[in-house]
Design a protein that fits this description.
homodimer; 194 residues; mainly alpha; 5 helices; elongated
């Protein structure tokens, strides 16, 4: 069922770009190769795309983490007096570690060409991990929104602004990870039948 | 790529259950059939499983909808004075309609054996729909939790209890739909390569 050997996309086969100009007699020879190279390209693009999305998620959750952790201005303006903000901080830290680990693993796999996990396991870990962290991120960001809204009705200062910024970063991280989970789902769907 | 004709699981082929008692000479004849019937069984089970999960999600979101909509007890104890509860109600209604539509469609497909949508489209609709509604449900339920917690610190009455019940139903609906989205992802991964 699972194919453990990994065939990296070959860059030197570039026939599809010139296929349109070849005469009808030659089209027959390129017939079997074109779909395969197209598939390699698509998979390569997906790999880079999901790496970029995870990088974005790492950036956004790191920002949410830093902004919220430094959001202490004395008196009632301390983030750790509110459970919503503590929740957001906790999930931002967790998401930072998760996405950092994923980005490291995928960069290493792209550069060395070796797989740390078996291919199917890796796709499963990607899919479930992204999904779960995305659910946690959207939950924490939504729970912090009403409190901030209510505070801003009374006062609009650096504390509420920083909270709003951290919440936005949480939402951006969620969107990146949700898209990445969709790509992981697609990968899970195609990789075992090559 | 996509195979539009649908082969329903055949119940009359029941060789795997008695395969263990057949002599070695007969095992050769059952060799090609057993994996296929096993696959049919698994797909049938998954179909029923996802239908049951969607049914549960329908039940829970209907409960959340009814409990929250009837949560008016005068004075400050009206759900429509709080944006979190209005959000929860809106998403519960949306989720009720979505899951009701899905359950109707799948029941009709199971009973008539005809597909309303093309198979690949149907799997895509299932996967993306479940995913999006699950995100909305977890977001609305999490946003309503802190407000209810804070109210219950002051007073514990029928209003806060009903709110807590509606939130729990929202979370249960989320869990059902998240599991259903996983099954849809699995289906999306297997159905196009039969």
């Amino acid at each position: 069922m699972s194919n453990s050997e990994h065939t990296p996309p070959k860059k030197d086969v570039e026939s599809p770009a010139t296929d349109n100009t070849t005469p009808a007699a030659e089209t027959g020879t390129g017939f079997g190769v074109a779909p395969i190279t197209r598939r390699w390209r698509r998979e390569d693009m997906l790999k880079r795309g999901s790496l970029a999305l995870r990088g974005l998620a790492l950036l956004f959750s790191l920002l949410a983490f830093i902004i919220m952790a430094s959001n202490k201005h004395g008196d009632w303006k301390d983030f750790d007096k509110y459970e919503e903000y503590r929740y957001l901080l906790a999930i931002a830290i967790l998401s930072t570690f998760y996405t950092a680990g994923q980005v490291l693993r995928h960069v290493q796999e792209l550069s060395t060409g070796k797989q740390m996990l078996e291919k199917r396991t890796s796709a499963m870990v990607d899919f479930f991990g992204d999904q779960i962290v995305a659910y946690l991120l959207v939950s924490s960001a939504s729970s912090a929104v009403p409190l901030t809204n209510r505070m801003r009705e009374g006062a609009d200062n650096i504390f509420t602004d920083s909270s709003a910024a951290a919440i936005s970063m949480g939402f951006f991280a969620f969107i990146s990870l949700a898209l990445s989970a969709l790509i992981s789902g697609y990968k899970l769907s195609t990789q075992s039948y090559i």
